[in-house]
UniProtKB/TrEMBL annotation, chains A, B:
Keywords: Oxidoreductase. Pfam families: ADH_N_2, ADH_zinc_N. This is NADP-dependent oxidoreductase. Residues 22-338 form the Enoyl reductase (ER) domain. GO terms for molecular function: oxidoreductase activity, acting on the CH-CH group of donors, NAD or NADP as acceptor. InterPro entries: ADH-like_C (IPR013149), ADH_N_2 (IPR041694), ER (IPR020843), GroES-like_sf (IPR011032), MDR_fam (IPR045010), NAD(P)-bd_dom_sf (IPR036291).
Length: 342, 342
């Protein structure tokens, strides 16, 4: 019997107040225990970093329970089975897991999905063919429902969700306006991804640029950021506009009780009434029964070259906290992934 | 040929700033012109007064165009055909029209629906079997979707829409909490309409009473008032709660630009995300193809005694402005109707 490996893991050291900092995380090491019957030992290859993880650091009521203080940070992973006491898996299998920010994990196999590296690069299981891609698909199919000729707006448009939203909406025949931070990302979504218009939200005249880019108003706003993008979008919404809400990255670091400025809620409620708006929060899990459709459809779009993606890969689990803090400020360019093992 | 009748009508004299006053209306008289081929002369029997009319007095962008200054106030009516040059109608026919705040009107017949006084009292075409009842039906069927055992909350619960919402939700198996103004209305919705709980929103501990009445939270909030009722409902909303928005009577008199207090919008957006809420504005017209289902279903419920209604009838068109101003302050008790002709 070989010696037990030593696992590296990143735990939540303390809850952030407002913007998270490096000290909210702590790196720990621990020798992996023996496997019980039916278990497998996973060696993490890639860890996905996503904005929702900010929510797990708080203890506020949410759709998911928070990470405990001292607990391993949550996250989707692509892993290699390195040992198996489970007949369904053998050493060398590549699986999608949700084993979090750690180099090794033990699973009973119930939460694993085998990946076939022949079909698509395995990292896509964390992005375009994974949770972010399915978030885009489910939000459009069930809530946004873009029709041919309608105008769809999405922010964080070079990111994992936004890039999929925009490309899928183009496939459905919508006119797509993407919002991104900086000229490089704007060039990418327009030239590589084929968005109709790209707007830099750092521009001082950003609201005016958005209005000019939407001469017929906005029919679908896929909300994943909030903040000043919402403020620019709101007056442009058309009657019967649909607003799937899958994220609010601009607000994740705000104190939850009181916000400054005048109260915008009455004006928003009045617009909801006068324009027959739909605002609908969701997480992709709610639509889990549509995942087979998604895998088939998105797989076909990727192979046809109609659904492209960009990955921003950071090396080393120890760099995950810094990369995550950058993600919350829009510093990544493409789907942010940590390469945990070579 | 008999002499032409003189029509009495109430026009919009000026737009209100904030709360409307009597001086915003003006009563006029005018001799009715001769009928052209294909037209009918209508004599108004009953005029419906509804909160949405407040919106028509403003010139803000809305789903419907505003009443012009000097124009007849808009409104649903039940009328008698007094002369007809249209083969489809004969003198004496009773019709549902939308001829507004006036004693006589000329129609080409295209907007009329014949009523059969044998089936139900003709005033129900303005209430439970009319626009308010269909608003309740369409909002529940398409957006609220109450399931057996869920908790539904509705305000203005003794009113035309609220009373129908609550009784229909009971038929669908939900637990129904009604909010109304004052003990008389509360007694009525609990005892006559069979709501599970009635709460007086004038009570100083109204939010605490509401929380106590909803130990399992709120699954459907049928929004027709806004204001402090929304504030009490908001923290009690369950995951996946649905909020059809058909009215905001508490806000109709507010200046549209700026509201006081801290900004509640970020907290509401966060709740939409964390709780997967649906907020959906609507007007019943959007679901017009469901009206035949509604007439059949609601007619059956009325005849079975499962859908009751109460009318608050005011005599004389000249009293319509005062009655309407009272409606905006919740002074009516039941569906407010003006008897225009005996």
């Amino acid at each position: 019997m070989t010696g037990q490996p030593v696992a590296t893991r990143i735990v939540l050291a303390s809850r952030p107040s407002g913007k998270p900092v490096a000290a909210n995380f702590r790196l720990e090491r621990e020798t992996v225990r023996d496997l019980a019957e039916g278990e497998v030992l996973l060696e993490t290859l890639y860890l996905s970093l996503d904005p929702y993880m900010r929510g797990r650091m708080d203890d506020a009521k949410s759709y998911a329970k928070p990470v405990d203080i001292g607990g391993v940070m949550e996250g989707g992973t692509v892993a290699r089975v390195s040992r198996s006491s489970n007949a369904a898996f053998k050493a060398g299998d590549i699986v999608l897991s949700h084993s979090g920010w750690q180099s090794h994990a033990i699973s009973d196999g119930g939460d694993l999905r085998k990946l076939d590296p022949q079909i698509a690069p395995i990292t896509t299981a964390l992005g375009t063919l994974g949770m972010p891609g399915f978030t885009a698909y489910a939000g459009l199919r069930n809530i946004g429902k873009p029709k041919a000729g309608e105008t769809l707006v999405v922010a964080a448009a070079s990111g994992a969700v936004g890039s999929a939203v925009g490309q899928m909406a183009k496939i459905y025949g919508a006119r797509v306006v993407g919002i991104a931070g900086g000229p490089e990302k704007c060039d990418y979504i327009r030239q590589a991804l084929g968005f109709d218009v790209a707007i830099d939200h750092y521009a001082s005249d950003f609201p005016a640029q958005l209005a000019a880019a939407c001469p017929k108003g906005i029919d679908v706003y896929f909300e994943n950021v909030g903040g000043h993008v919402w403020s620019a979008v709101f007056p442009l919404l058309n009657d019967f506009a649909r607003i799937p809400v899958c994220g609010l990255i601009a607000h994740y670091n705000e104190a939850s009780s009181v916000s400054s400025g005048h109260d915008r809620l009455p004006a928003v409620m009045r617009a909801i009434l006068r324009k027959s708006l739909t605002i609908r929060g969701f997480i992709q899990r709610e639509f889990a029964e549509q995942r087979p459709d998604f895998y088939q459809q998105a797989g076909a779009w990727i192979s046809e070259g109609r659904l492209k993606y960009k990955e921003d890969v950071v090396d080393g689990l120890e760099n995950a906290p810094e990369a995550f803090l950058g993600l919350l400020e829009g510093k990544n360019f493409g789907k942010l992934i940590v390469r945990v093992a070579p």
